[in-house]
Amino acid sequence: MRILGRLAVVGIGFLWACEEQSNAPSGASTRLSADVPKPKGGKKCDSPSEQSKGVPEAPEWLKDGTTIVRYSVSMGAPPPFYKKGSKLEYVIGEAPGRGSIFGRPTPFFYEFPTFRTEFIIRKGDVVGARTISKDGQLKAKVSDINFSAKKLPNGYYAQAMEIREHHYDAAGTVIFEAWSEINASTGFKVSERDACGEKADEYYFVWPALR
Question: Does the pLDDT value for residue 119 go beyond 90?
Answer without folding.
Answer: yes
